[in-house]
Design a protein that fits this description.
The chain is an all-alpha fold and 78 residues long. Helices cover 72% and strands 0% of the residues. The chain is built from four helices and no strands. It has helices spanning 2-20, 22-29, 33-39, 43-64. Helix 1 packs antiparallel against helix 4 and helix 2 (22-29) packs across helix 4. It is elongated and about 45 Å long. The two termini are 17 Å apart.
Protein backbone atom coordinates (compact mmCIF):
# COMPACT_ATOMS: atom_id res chain seq x y z
CA UNK A 1 0.00 0.00 0.00
CA UNK A 2 2.73 2.48 0.92
CA UNK A 3 4.63 1.67 -2.27
CA UNK A 4 1.54 2.50 -4.34
CA UNK A 5 1.18 5.84 -2.58
CA UNK A 6 4.85 6.71 -3.05
CA UNK A 7 4.75 5.65 -6.70
CA UNK A 8 1.65 7.76 -7.29
CA UNK A 9 3.26 10.79 -5.64
CA UNK A 10 6.41 10.34 -7.73
CA UNK A 11 4.49 9.93 -11.01
CA UNK A 12 2.23 12.88 -10.24
CA UNK A 13 5.21 15.09 -9.45
CA UNK A 14 6.92 14.02 -12.64
CA UNK A 15 3.75 14.66 -14.65
CA UNK A 16 3.34 18.14 -13.17
CA UNK A 17 7.01 18.91 -13.83
CA UNK A 18 6.62 17.84 -17.47
CA UNK A 19 3.52 20.02 -17.82
CA UNK A 20 5.21 22.99 -16.21
CA UNK A 21 8.50 22.76 -18.10
CA UNK A 22 7.35 21.34 -21.45
CA UNK A 23 9.02 24.16 -23.40
CA UNK A 24 12.54 23.65 -21.94
CA UNK A 25 12.11 19.88 -22.30
CA UNK A 26 11.10 20.25 -25.95
CA UNK A 27 14.06 22.55 -26.58
CA UNK A 28 16.43 20.08 -24.90
CA UNK A 29 15.24 17.06 -26.88
CA UNK A 30 14.52 18.92 -30.11
CA UNK A 31 11.55 18.94 -32.44
CA UNK A 32 9.63 15.69 -32.90
CA UNK A 33 8.73 15.43 -36.59
CA UNK A 34 5.99 12.87 -36.02
CA UNK A 35 4.28 15.08 -33.43
CA UNK A 36 4.57 18.09 -35.72
CA UNK A 37 3.04 16.11 -38.58
CA UNK A 38 0.03 14.71 -36.71
CA UNK A 39 -0.56 17.39 -34.07
CA UNK A 40 0.14 20.40 -36.28
CA UNK A 41 2.34 23.40 -35.62
CA UNK A 42 3.66 23.26 -32.06
CA UNK A 43 2.94 19.54 -31.91
CA UNK A 44 6.14 18.80 -30.02
CA UNK A 45 5.01 20.98 -27.12
CA UNK A 46 1.55 19.40 -27.26
CA UNK A 47 3.12 15.93 -27.21
CA UNK A 48 5.01 16.76 -24.00
CA UNK A 49 1.79 18.08 -22.43
CA UNK A 50 0.05 14.80 -23.35
CA UNK A 51 2.94 12.81 -21.85
CA UNK A 52 2.64 14.80 -18.61
CA UNK A 53 -1.11 14.17 -18.40
CA UNK A 54 -0.55 10.46 -19.07
CA UNK A 55 1.89 10.30 -16.15
CA UNK A 56 -0.78 11.81 -13.89
CA UNK A 57 -3.46 9.39 -15.16
CA UNK A 58 -1.15 6.41 -14.59
CA UNK A 59 -0.41 7.74 -11.09
CA UNK A 60 -4.14 7.77 -10.32
CA UNK A 61 -4.53 4.22 -11.65
CA UNK A 62 -1.57 3.04 -9.56
CA UNK A 63 -3.07 4.67 -6.47
CA UNK A 64 -6.42 2.94 -7.05
CA UNK A 65 -4.72 -0.41 -7.64
CA UNK A 66 -5.90 -0.73 -11.24
CA UNK A 67 -2.39 -0.56 -12.69
CA UNK A 68 0.63 -2.46 -11.44
CA UNK A 69 4.23 -2.57 -12.57
CA UNK A 70 4.50 -6.36 -12.53
CA UNK A 71 3.61 -8.71 -9.74
CA UNK A 72 0.09 -9.59 -8.78
CA UNK A 73 -2.77 -7.11 -8.84
CA UNK A 74 -3.96 -5.90 -5.44
CA UNK A 75 -7.58 -5.32 -6.41
CA UNK A 76 -9.87 -7.60 -4.39
CA UNK A 77 -11.76 -10.17 -6.43
CA UNK A 78 -9.33 -10.23 -9.36
Amino acid sequence: MISRILTAILLTGLGIAILKWSEPIAKSFGINDLAELYLGAGGTYTMWKIVGVLFIVVAFLVLMGSFTFGGTPTVPGV
